[in-house]
């Protein structure tokens, strides 16, 4: 099954400062900015594009329930996850199951851009948070 890098999620403490860094230092472009209060997300997101690559800057909006807040408390700011685009998320999940790689069922959702996503269990990925995603309405 083909997997292609979709984006990298970066946990940040100051969204304005991070946007300015990506714009002024890396010549990035701010594509979108939105707030998600969905359970398990609770963050403000800035989508940046740098030389054709997508970066999601993630600022927690709830310091008690946001997984981004927990990540920052445990590991500090920085790379939170790497997302891989797959052709069909349902088939990719079945493939993972056959390979004994667990997914975190509670993370399955569709974001505001129509991206359907799920996170793999970091216990099965050498500790790296990996997202699989597809864009079913864009095919």
TrEMBL record:
It comes from the Bacteria. Belongs to the methylmalonyl-CoA epimerase family. GO terms for biological process: L-methylmalonyl-CoA metabolic process. Residues 4-135 form the VOC domain. It holds the Pfam family Glyoxalase_4. The lineage of its organism: Bacteria, Bacillati, Bacillota, Bacilli, Bacillales. This is Methylmalonyl-CoA epimerase. PROSITE patterns: VOC. One of its GO terms (molecular function) is metal ion binding. It comes from Alteribacillus bidgolensis. Keywords: Metal-binding.
């Amino acid at each position: 099954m083909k997997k292609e890098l979709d984006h990298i999620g970066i946990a940040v403490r100051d969204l304005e400062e991070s946007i300015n860094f990506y714009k002024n230092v890396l010549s990035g472009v701010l594509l979108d900015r939105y707030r998600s209060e969905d359970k398990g997300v609770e963050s403000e997101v800035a989508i940046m594009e740098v030389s054709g690559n997508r970066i999601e800057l993630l600022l927690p909006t709830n310091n008690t329930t946001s997984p981004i807040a927990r990540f920052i408390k445990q590991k500090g700011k920085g790379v939170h996850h790497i997302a891989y685009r797959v052709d069909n998320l349902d088939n990719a999940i079945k493939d993972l199951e056959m390979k004994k790689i667990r997914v975190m069922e509670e993370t399955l959702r569709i974001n505001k851009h129509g991206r359907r996503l799920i996170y793999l269990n970091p216990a099965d990925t050498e500790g790296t948070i990996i997202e699989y995603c597809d864009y079913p309405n864009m095919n």
